[in-house]
Write a structure and sequence with these properties.
heterodimer; A: alpha+beta; Ubiquitin-like (UB roll); DNA polymerase, domain 1; 2 domains; B: Uridine Diphospho-n-acetylenolpyruvylglucosamine Reductase, domain 2; four-stranded antiparallel beta sheet; 14 strands
């Protein structure tokens, strides 16, 4: 039996009737067409599906859409404001913190979560903070530099 | 991956959760979903109904209770790891919680959900068994307290009854001169424990006065390493004693060691003394600091 849900997505209330088994990531991608959030491993290990749920980074492949009912979700599509990239997005661009870009939305939210709890992380702490996100292109070096640059530029937003 | 369909029910109080459990035989409880949702997606679980207990606020939070800490079942791993009380009084638990999965997993996964699923590779059961913690299980007619060592009974199997809900975990606080630690050989992708070892050691004038040790990850469920405990009790708190005592863990493991494609039973058994030794040394070092 379908369940009515309303989730604030990037500041806009979105309502739908969904099957309880629908994952939050499927709701974002297949119902709303917000394909910036990726499905990688689909087993809560790779981090490609990370979004903010009430301001906290979560893996949306391991969250049912019904669990997010009444919550606020931020996806990568909602990070820039008025065409202005966020500090993290800007830093990933500047420092070449991506190649194919598949892991990048999740990486940015992992970095966002890290800077939320530790605004000035060491390179070691950055690597530890990104432990739940996998990148198969960059070798991580430029991702760490991007997070350092965002921290130096004053944070995540 | 798509789970089999199920009916979704939401409880906002323990009483409502019990009513829904009674009315829906075979239903599963959903907390943070980081144990259940993967099982649903793999269709290792296909319950007719899922009861979301996430909104029950009374099951969330950490509070002192006499000489113990009472940690509500819905408290996330992130909250346990960040708690000053847990870090001071049950360092091994804070350490284990900080090592579950990754930051996003720790933001959702809960202590109650973790232990109710009793994954043999989970970190928290090993610590709870070592620290003599207890599980508060609430049924329709009241609550009972189950020692952690009796709660975990097999692979993904616990002493919890069908009509009971894990409400809290009660963890004795370390006193002065007592330290605890958890170390693990983490699977490189999942961070689950290939081998995990937890220890609490009371050091008195350089001697290990009381020793509690448990191992997990390599056995069907976390268990006390009593041969190690006996071997170290009364011995000097030094590297040679830790190594000699840790070697006795083979007696505690018996023939009951898990192996898989990542790490054979033989390899895990060979690693067990290494991690037990490290846990003992770290716990004893912390005992000296308090």
């Amino acid at each position: 039996m379908k369940v009515p849900i309303t989730i604030s997505i990037n500041g806009r209330a979105r309502s739908a009737e969904v099957e309880p088994r629908l994952l939050l990531v499927q709701f974002l991608r297949d119902v709303l067409g917000l394909t910036g959030t990726k499905i990688g491993c689909d087993t809560s290990q790779c981090g490609a599906c990370m979004v903010l749920l009430d301001g906290i980074a979560v893996k949306s492949c391991t969250c049912l859409a019904v669990q997010a009912d009444g919550c606020a979700v931020t996806t990568i599509e909602g990070l820039a404001s008025n065409g202005q990239l966020s500090a993290l997005q800007e830093a990933f661009w500047e420092k070449h913190g991506l190649q194919c870009g598949f892991c990048t939305p999740g990486m940015i939210f992992a970095a966002y979560e890290l800077l939320r709890t530790n605004p000035n992380p060491s390179p070691e702490q950055i690597r530890h903070g990104l432990e739940g996100n996998m990148c198969r292109c960059t070798g991580y070096q430029n991702i760490v530099r991007a997070v350092q640059a965002a921290a130096a530029a004053g944070g995540r937003a | 991956m798509f789970a089999a369909n199920f009916e979704y029910l939401r409880a906002t109080s323990l009483a409502e959760a019990h009513r829904l459990l009674a009315a829906n035989p075979g239903a599963k409880l959903l907390a943070g979903g980081h144990s259940l949702v993967p099982l649903l997606k793999l269709r290792l679980a296909a319950p007719p109904a899922v009861i979301d207990i996430g909104p029950i606020t009374e099951l969330r939070g950490i509070a002192g209770q006499g000489d113990s800490l009472r940690i509500g079942a819905l408290t996330t791993h992130a909250a346990v790891a960040a708690s000053a009380e847990v870090r001071t009084s049950a360092a091994a638990l804070a350490e284990a919680a900080a090592g579950v999965g990754d930051p996003a997993v720790r933001n959702r996964g809960t202590i109650g959900g973790n232990i109710a699923h009793a994954d043999p590779a989970s970190d928290l059961p090993t610590v709870l068994v070592a620290l003599d913690a207890a599980v508060v299980a609430v049924g329709p007619k009241g609550e009972r307290t189950i020692p952690a060592a009796e709660f975990f009974t097999g692979i993904m199997t616990t002493a919890l009854r069908d009509n009971e809900i894990v409400a809290a975990v009660v963890v004795p606080m370390s006193k002065r001169g007592v330290g605890s630690a958890y170390v693990k050989f983490a699977h490189p992708a999942s961070r689950y424990a290939v081998v995990g070892a937890a220890a609490r050691v009371a050091v008195n004038k350089g001697t290990c006065a009381e020793v509690q040790v448990a191992v997990g990850g390599l056995v069907p469920h976390a268990r006390r390493a009593s041969a190690v405990e006996r071997a170290l009790t009364g011995q000097p708190a030094e590297a040679a004693s830790f190594q000699a005592a840790a070697a006795r863990v083979r007696e505690d493991l018996g023939g009951d060691v898990n192996g898989d494609v990542f790490a054979s039973a033989e390899y895990r058994a060979a690693m067990a003394p290494v991690y037990v030794k490290r846990a003992l040394a770290a716990a004893a070092a912390r005992a000296g600091l308090t």
